[in-house]
C-alpha cells in the first residue's frame, strides 16, 4: 500500500531528458524553430508546417488516452470532426473569432468524448477498440446525413482566416503557438497527481481503485482530454483548409493518428511529437521517392492512394515487433540512455 501511495506522490522522472535543464533547452529550441519556419520556408513549406503542427496536437491528445491511460481508441478522427464542425458552425452563424472557435472545438469534443468514453468504464482491450470504432462510424454517419446542419457530403465552406493582416504567416504562428502550448501542457499534466493517476490506472486499475483513485473519473477524464485535444486540432484544421466535410474524418484518418502514436512512442509526449512529424511527412517522402524511381510523369495519386492504408498498417506492425518503444526509443539510445523512462512509472 505504501509503495503504491508513494508512487502517486513522487515527482515523475523525465521520459527522455537526464535533467530539467536539458528539457528546458529542448522546449526553447523547439519554440525558436517554430518561430523561424516562415523566415526560411517557402509557401509549400509553410503549408506542411501548419499541417504538422495540427497533427501534432491531435497525436498528443491520442497519446494521453492510449499511451498514458492505456485506453485503446481507434475513433480519434471523429473527435477532430466534432471540433471542426462545432467551430465552423460557430463562425458561420455567430462570426466568432479563431481563438473562441478553438475553445468551442475543444469543449464540444470533450463533451462528446465523455459520452463515448462510457464503454471504457466496463470494458477494455479489443472490446474497447470495437466500442470506439462504433463511435467513429456513428459520428461519421451524423456528419454525412445531418445535411441541414453539416451540409452532408458537400460540407461547410469557410472564408480565409487573416491574423493581424499577416495572411498565411499569421495563421501559422497561431497554429505553432497552440501546438507548443498544448504539448507543454500535456507534458506537465503527468507531473501532477491527475496525470500519475492515468498511469496508475493503465498499469493496474484494480490496484489503483484500492489506493482510493476514482478509476471511473480517471478513465472518463482521459477520454475527455484526448478528445479535447482532437477538438482543438479539428478547429485549426477547419480554419486551415477552409472546408469541413465527412471525408476528412474517416477510419483511415484515425488509423493515421494511431500509427503516429505507435511509431513515435506510446506514453511519451516527445514520442507523440516525433510520430506526428514522421507520419505527416512520410507521404511527401514517398512521393519524392516514387517520382525519382518512376520518373516525374508518374501518376502519384494512383500510386500512393492504394498504398496509404498498407503503409500505415505495416509501420504499426513493424514498430510493434522491432521497436515497440518507437522513435523515442531510438532517440534515447542515440543519447546514450539504457532504457526509456515513462513519466511517473520509472519504466
Category from helices, strands and their pairing: mainly alpha
Instruction: Work out the number of β strands.
Output: 2
Continuous helix count: 15
Elements, N to C (H/E): HHHHHHHEHHHHEHHHH
Report mean pLDDT, rounded to a whole number. 81
* Overall tally of structural domains: 1
Secondary structure blueprint with pairings:
Layout: H1 2-9, H2 20-40, H3 43-68, H4 76-94, H5 98-116, H6 126-145, H7 147-150, E1 156-157, H8 167-189, H9 193-203, H10 205-210, H11 215-241, E2 243-244, H12 251-264, H13 269-294, H14 300-322, H15 326-334
Antiparallel strand pairs: 1-2
Helix pairs in contact: 2-8, 3-8, 3-11, 3-12, 3-13, 4-5, 4-6, 4-11, 5-11, 9-11, 12-13, 12-14, 13-14, 13-15
Name the features.
single chain, 347 residues, mainly alpha, two-stranded antiparallel sheet, 1% strand, disordered N terminus, disordered C terminus
What's the quick description here?
The protein has helices spanning 2-9, 20-40, 43-68, 76-94, 98-116, 126-145, 147-150, 167-189, 193-203, 205-210, 215-241, 251-264, 269-294, 300-322, 326-334, and strands at residues 156-157, 243-244. It is mostly helical and 347 residues long. Mean pLDDT is 81; it is low at 1-14 and 338-347.
Amino acid at each position: 500500500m505504501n509503495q503504491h501511495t508513494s508512487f502517486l506522490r513522487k515527482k515523475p522522472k523525465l521520459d527522455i531528458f537526464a535533467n530539467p535543464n536539458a528539457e528546458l533547452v529542448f522546449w526553447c529550441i523547439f519554440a525558436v524553430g517554430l518561430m523561424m519556419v516562415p523566415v526560411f520556408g517557402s509557401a509549400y513549406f509553410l503549408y506542411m508546417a501548419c499541417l504538422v503542427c495540427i497533427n501534432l496536437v491531435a497525436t498528443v491528445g491520442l497519446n494521453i488516452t492510449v499511451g498514458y491511460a492505456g485506453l485503446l481508441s481507434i475513433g480519434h478522427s471523429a473527435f477532430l470532426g466534432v471540433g471542426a464542425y462545432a467551430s465552423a458552425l460557430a463562425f458561420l452563424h455567430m462570426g466568432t473569432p479563431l481563438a473562441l472557435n478553438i475553445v468551442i472545438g475543444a469543449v464540444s469534443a470533450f463533451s462528446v468524448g465523455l459520452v463515448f468514453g462510457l464503454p471504457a468504464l466496463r470494458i477494455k482491450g479489443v472490446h474497447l477498440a470495437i466500442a470506439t470504432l462504433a463511435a467513429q462510424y456513428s459520428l461519421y454517419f451524423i456528419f454525412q446525413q445531418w445535411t441541414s446542419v453539416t451540409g452532408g457530403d458537400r460540407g461547410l465552406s469557410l472564408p480565409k482566416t487573416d491574423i493581424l493582416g499577416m495572411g498565411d504567416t499569421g495563421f501559422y504562428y497561431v497554429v505553432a503557438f497552440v501546438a507548443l502550448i498544448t504539448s507543454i501542457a500535456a507534458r506537465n499534466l503527468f507531473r501532477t497527481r491527475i496525470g500519475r493517476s492515468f498511469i496508475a490506472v493503465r498499469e493496474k486499475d484494480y490496484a489503483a481503485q484500492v489506493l482510493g483513485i476514482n478509476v471511473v473519473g480517471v478513465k472518463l477524464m482521459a477520454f475527455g482530454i484526448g478528445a479535447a485535444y482532437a477538438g482543438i486540432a479539428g478547429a485549426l484544421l477547419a480554419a486551415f483548409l477552409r472546408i469541413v466535410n465527412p471525408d476528412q474524418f474517416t477510419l483511415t484518418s484515425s488509423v493515421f493518428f494511431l500509427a503516429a502514436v505507435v511509431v513515435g512512442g506510446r506514453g511519451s509526449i516527445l514520442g507523440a511529437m516525433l510520430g506526428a512529424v514522421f507520419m505527416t511527412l512520410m507521404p511527401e517522402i514517398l512521393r519524392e521517392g516514387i517520382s525519382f524511381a518512376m520518373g516525374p510523369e508518374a501518376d502519384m495519386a494512383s500510386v500512393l492512394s492504394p498504398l496509404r492504408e498498407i503503409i500505415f498498417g505495416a509501420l504499426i506492425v513493424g514498430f510493434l515487433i522491432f521497436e515497440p518503444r518507437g522513435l523515442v526509443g531510438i532517440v534515447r539510445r542515440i543519447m546514450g540512455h539504457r532504457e526509456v523512462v515513462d513519466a511517473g512509472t520509472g519504466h
